[in-house]
Design goal:
The chain is of the alpha+beta class. The chain has helices at residues 14-23, 38-43, 79-84, 86-91, 93-99, 105-110, 113-119, 125-132, 150-153, 228-234, 241-254, 266-287; strands at residues 7-9, 29-32, 51-54, 64-67, 70-74, 136-141, 144-149, 154-156, 159-160, 167-173, 181-187, 197-206, 209-218, 225-226. The strands form 4 sheets. Strands 4-5-10-6-7 form a 5-stranded antiparallel β-sheet. A 4-stranded antiparallel β-sheet has the order 11-12-13-14. The chain binds flavin-adenine dinucleotide.
Length: 289
């Protein structure tokens, strides 16, 4: 199928792009980044914007920089660039591990970190990384810049805190505190498919006990979910397989009814989340020092 008719603009700067969005009525304009999610939606006429604002060529949004102890990543940075970045491999191993699980090389060549965050697919890897790493999302709009914590950015299925005239410009990912172990695991039906379910885990060991545990699951709700009840069960305890099993069970009990579709039933997703959490905790603990 072909998309419905639209106008196309390729602004030369971020400021120009914001102006174009602000001049358009609500839902009339759409930002085009890598196009890997938007183009299929246009082709199927599930999206019918009157104007496409193509920001994929904006070099000012394409960078990976050290910022304090973390990284600042421009929204137009492709997944391929993140996959190949030595800085990301060294400083953000969890982000790197998640990146190589996204789609196929062709998708990662075009798809951007900003596009994935803005798309907010509940089975996508990057929103889960953002929550697990306590990332901040920098947004530019007609009223200037604002910084949104990941926990406030992802609202529900395919919905974020972005206003219609706002553009996500940067993702700030803090460095994990020294000695923190991490894990990123998922199950997909075929290599390159979206995950059926996945789990991102970080934790520290303090005098032989777990501390600062963060557990995020994705593919099992309307967005990536941080599960406090399971984290609290782990913190302050010695890292044993029994503890991690109890935490996985707790998580599977407290998450609300997961999606049920032709790929997996809600019960299967719930059980996957349990097992991935249990294994993720064990892996993170083995990496903690
Ligand atoms: C076959 C296939 C397999 C895939 N597998 C996976 C997978 O396993 N995991 C995964 O996470 N993704 C997967 N994807 C999706 C892919 O990662 C997309 O790249 C991503 O979802 C969107 O990024 P994009 O740069 O292509 O954005 P686009 O498709 O251009 O845009 C997506 C949406 O975000 C908005 N948007 C884009 N950039 C911004 C911005 N800077 N500010 C505000 N709004 C913006 C657009 O208006 C649009 O609504 C897959 C896609 C395909 C086609």
């Amino acid at each position: 199928m072909k998309p419905a008719r639209f106008d196309y603009a390729a602004p030369g700067s971020l400021a120009e792009a914001v102006t174009l969005l602000a001049q358009s009525g609500e839902d009339e304009a759409k930002i085009l980044a890598g196009g890997q999610s938007l183009m299929p939606l246009l082709n199927m006429r599930l999206a019918r914007p009157q104007l496409l604002v193509d920001v994929s060529g904006l070099a000012e949004l394409d960078y990976i920089r050290e910022q304090g102890a973390g990284l600042a990543i421009g929204a137009m940075t492709t997944k391929r660039a993140l996959e190949q970045s030595e800085l990301v491999k060294r400083r953000q191993p969890l982000l790197h591990a998640a990146t190589v699980l996204i789609g196929h090389p062709q998708i990662r060549n075009r798809g951007t970190i900003g596009g994935s965050m803005a798309q907010a697919d509940p089975a996508a890897e990057y929103p889960a990384v953002a929550l697990a790493m306590d990332a901040e999302l920098v947004v530019q709009g007609p009223d200037g810049e604002r910084c949104i914590k990941a926990e406030d950015f992802f609202v529900t299925y395919l919905t974020t805190a972005l206003e219609p005239a706002e553009i996500l410009s940067e993702v700030r990912v803090p460095e994990l505190p020294a000695g923190t172990g991490w894990s990123f695991r998922e199950v997909a039906r075929r290599h390159g498919d979206f995950a059926v379910a996945g789990a991102a885990v970080t934790l520290r060991l303090e005098a032989g006990r777990c501390a600062d545990t963060r557990i995020v699951v994705f593919g099992v709700g309307d967005r990536a979910l941080r599960v406090d009840e399971a984290e609290q069960l782990v913190d302050g305890e010695a890292p044993t397989s029994g503890l991690f099993e109890r935490a996985g069970t707790k998580l599977s009990e407290v998450i609300e009814e997961p999606l049920s579709d032709l790929h997996a039933s809600a019960d299967y997703r719930r059980d996957l989340a349990r097992v991935l959490t249990q294994r993720g905790l064990a892996e993170a603990a083995s990496r903690a020092s």
